[in-house]
Write a structure and sequence with these properties.
It contains 23 helices and no strands. It is mainly alpha-helical and about 475 residues long. Helix 2 runs antiparallel to helix 10 and helix 16 packs parallel to helix 18. Bound molecules: beta-D-glucopyranose (BGC).
């Protein structure tokens, strides 16, 4: 188990880079403006959002690459692209080159966002898979928090090059760390390399479980490899829709308007620069802490209760934020306190549910033959929706005001809850093979690591898995 946890923690450095690189720009923007001779708002938005566009591309390429050349080489390439992109940003001679650098970093962020949970999901034993895959989300939130602290710490010197450049260190660690790890047993067996898979599993599992796992994986794989068309087949389409819908709901319920813009919002609301940044660090810390709580609970209470309970908290937070902004964006006294409390409740509730559960679910619900590609599609939908929300938030804010925007997010969160209750299956404690077998309508007993008895009765059949059967 120590080896699995170690491997998951090393791989999760990819998540740290995802969080750091998406978070760091909020502070760096302040200093880019004067550096390049007064950039327009649109030019600043471009620096922020080109990373998200790059991430759509990265998620697209990484899925195919991970299926074709393996998970480990894909992570090595991702780490290399991270290093190149980050150094290009840190040493950029011009604004135009900085834009290219952000696009390159985006490629790595998008790739990492899918290949990290993919790999961890495949080396983890079912019993601990929820917590282990969600180490990635923990790393994302830690990356965001560290980037806020770095921005805050370097604010007086205005050293935006260092803000960008510091990300090279975890990228190099990721590269070196992954070299010490083994290829995913799933991928090896799929390539007919059973001997290697067996020796990888022998390192990761108690000896009694290796044979059974190998034969389970082989039986799932023997059903053949699938092309893109399989994604739309009767067996896979319901799971594909669940992944894509969760991806879109994760973004259109507003998380990154808080993660990227909270300091600006609070500043406009009347807080001084440093109080706004401090409140931001507070929000980042709550994000980390609640993710830790989620990791402890995911494999005990299951995914659905956290997802549905957390989303309810998000809706409450957004309604409170909408109320705080009635009467204008300038907040004083009680309304300022209400706004900050609302953002904290909202972010904490995201962190305990929809944040980790989305990335976890998409590593669990797809059949092996299409897992890489299907995870790519869900990740691309996530980055695409993120891009649209991020690029339109400030415009929406000036058009319909804080109350309008937050009420809209609250409404979308209620729709998300309705969807989760109806369509999202419980996957706690089940082997990936068992989830897949159920998806195809055939039976495969769960391994000792994941007794089906832990399954709340009747939950899977309500979800897409049951529909597909
Ligand atoms: C989301 C990111 C978000 C982060 C916040 C992730 O699950 O995909 O878009 O910035 O959580 O913690």
């Amino acid at each position: 188990m120590r080896r699995v946890t170690g491997g998951a923690a090393i791989t999760a450095l990819g998540g740290l880079l995802f969080g750091y690189d998406t978070g760091v720009v909020s502070g760096a923007l302040l200093f880019l403006k004067p550096e390049f001779g007064g950039l327009s708002n649109f030019q600043l938005e471009l620096v922020t959002s080109l990373l998200l566009l790059g991430a759509i591309g990265g998620a697209l390429i990484a899925g195919r690459l991970a299926d074709r050349i393996g998970r480990k080489p894909s992570i090595l390439i991702t780490a290399t692209v991270f290093v190149l992109g980050v150094l290009l940003a840190a040493f950029t001679p011009s604004y135009a080159v900085l834009l290219i650098a952000r696009l390159v970093i985006g490629l790595a962020v998008g790739s990492s966002s899918m290949v990290v949970p993919l790999y961890i999901g495949e080396i983890a034993p079912p019993r601990f898979r929820g917590g282990l895959v969600s180490l990635n989300q923990l790393a994302i939130t830690l990356g965001i928090l560290v980037s806020y602290l770095v921005d805050y710490g370097l604010a007086s010197s205005g050293n935006w090059r260092l803000m960008f450049g510091l990300a090279a260190a975890p990228a190099v660690l990721l590269f070196g760390g992954i070299l010490t790890q083994k290829e995913s047993p799933y991928w090896l067996i799929e390539r007919g390399r059973d001997g290697e898979a067996r020796s990888v599993l022998a390192r990761l599992r108690p000896s009694g479980e290796v044979d059974q796992e190998v034969s389970e994986i082989r039986s799932v794989i023997s059903q053949g490899r699938a092309g893109l068309r399989e994604l739309l087949s009767r067996a896979v389409k319901p799971a594909l829709l669940v992944g894509v819908a969760m991806a879109v709901f994760q973004q259109v319920t507003g998380i990154n308007t808080v993660i990227y813009y909270a300091p600006s919002l609070l500043h406009d609301a009347g807080l001084g620069n440093s109080s706004a940044l401090l409140a931001n660090v507070g929000i980042g810390a709550v994000n980390v802490l609640m993710t830790i709580v989620a990791i402890r609970l995911l494999d005990r209470t299951g995914r659905r209760p956290l997802l549905i309970g957390g989303s309810t908290g998000m809706a409450i937070g957004m309604i409170a934020a909408a109320l705080a902004f009635i009467g204008g964006t300038h907040l004083t006294g009680g309304r300022a306190v209400l706004a900050i409390a609302a953002l904290v409740v909202y972010t904490g509730s995201f962190a305990i549910g929809l944040g980790p559960v989305f990335w976890l679910m998409i590593s669990e619900i797809y059949p092996q033959r299409v897992r890489g590609t299907a995870m790519s599609v869900a990740s691309m939908a996530n980055w695409g929706a993120n891009f649209l929300v991020t690029i339109s938030f400030l415009t929406m804010l000036s058009a319909i005001g804080g109350t309008g925007v937050f009420a809209l997010f609250a409404f979308l969160t209620l729709m998300a809850i309705w969807f989760f209750i109806r369509k999202v299956p419980e996957t706690k404690g089940r082997s990936l093979q068992a989830i897949e077998a159920e998806l195809r309508g055939s039976q495969l007993p769960d391994r000792p690591g994941g007794p089906p008895g832990q399954q709340p009765p009747g939950e899977m059949p309500q979800g897409p898995v049951g529909h597909a059967a």
